[in-house]
Amino acid sequence: MTKAGAEVRVPPTDWEPQVWDPPTGFGQTRRERAARGRAYTSAVPARIADLRLQVPPALAADAEDAAAEIARFDASTEHGLGAITAVLLRSESASSSQIEQISASARAIAEAELTGSGKPNAVVVADNTRAMTDAVSSADALTAEVIAGVQRVLLERHSPGLVGWREEAVWIGGGGSTPVSADYVAPDHRRIVGAVDDLVAFAARDDLLLLPQIAIAHAQFETIHPFADGNGRTGRALVQILLRSKGLTRTATVPVSGGLLTEKSRYFDALEAFREGDAGPIVRQFVRASLRAVDQGRQLAARTIELRDTWRATVRARSDSAAWRILDLLPAHPVVDAETIAREVGIHPNNVRRSVAPLVEAGILVPSQHFKSHKSLYRAPSVLDLLDDYAAEVGRRER
């Protein structure tokens, strides 16, 4: 039965009985042994492919305004701010990970992206960036294969055994290693394929308001929880895929996760309300997060451009020097090696040291060595500080 007083009515999640029957093994606590054979309930996601969606006029107007702001921001990155698109994508990936208490410094993340190794959290966030990059650049529409592909890129390096649709129970909360006392138990794994196909059909519709459609698709994905790990990060990557495939964005990654992070508890409450039959809170959170994301994105863009202008006034080099092209590379690649510079700028590797010399002399680049791979690198501290400041600012705004 739909939640009484629901702002945006959706069919609520149903429930079915299950019995906890885990594999026996050593190292189980007394509480875990006692839970064996006990009953619990798992979710049965409502079908939404043919959902008749009715959004109140005021909320619909807010959603349309937010969608228009996203489109305007994307257009600004396409005409003159293209250099910051990678900065936006990196910040969105970091914020999405931060929602799940996975964080690392911008330097550690950039080094992990470049070397493929590093501190565990940094590698996880770097993989999130790679998954989001691949998804938004190649997905014309949301499909089951695209969803599975995002999760594969997220986990294939550090948790390959968890890649793919799960075949076990997963749950949220409860403070234990059994679903018996969990706050939420995701659907039985045998329901996943059908539920994902239903979600994909809903996402493919072209008769709905875009932002409410994207918010509901995201909430439905989180309800299905089709993977053993990586559901939250995959679900937020799907938001970027839908923004792109629906035509709201063409070049920019709008940092929606940063907007959600500022009201993380409300975001989780909204997902719970959706399961109870009211999509109003999650639509409203996406409207607020989108508007906040555009504001944050514009600030990040302005700071990046200001930084680039400061560099150009500082560097002393010939007008035809490769140093200027390297300078333009740094917002997207705040940690680089000689091979990356040579490839991206189009110079011979033997000329890299001479080309970066003016930037090192100006303090824009600092030579360093990666602690794990011992690879020689150059880092741009001011870009890394910019990203760290953004992450700290977004995190502090949580309420």
Please outline what is shown here.
The chain is mostly helical and 399 residues long. The chain has 16 helices and seven strands.
Give an overview of the whole structure:
The chain is mainly alpha-helical and 399 residues long. The chain folds into two domains: 14-299, Fic-like fold; 317-390, Orthogonal Bundle (Arc Repressor Mutant, subunit A), CATH 1.10.10. 55% of the residues lie in helices and 7% in strands. The chain has helices at residues 30-35, 57-78, 85-99, 106-115, 120-138, 144-155, 192-203, 210-224, 231-245, 256-261, 264-275, 280-314, 323-329, 338-345, 352-361, 381-396, and strands at residues 14-19, 39-44, 171-172, 184-185, 335-336, 366-369, 376-379. The strands form three sheets. It has a three-stranded antiparallel β-sheet. The protein has a two-stranded antiparallel ribbon with strand order 1-2. Strands 3-4 form a two-stranded antiparallel ribbon. β6 (366-369) and β7 form a beta hairpin. α3 (85-99) packs across α16 (381-396). The radius of gyration is 23 Å and the shape is globular. The model has no long low-confidence stretch (mean pLDDT 89).
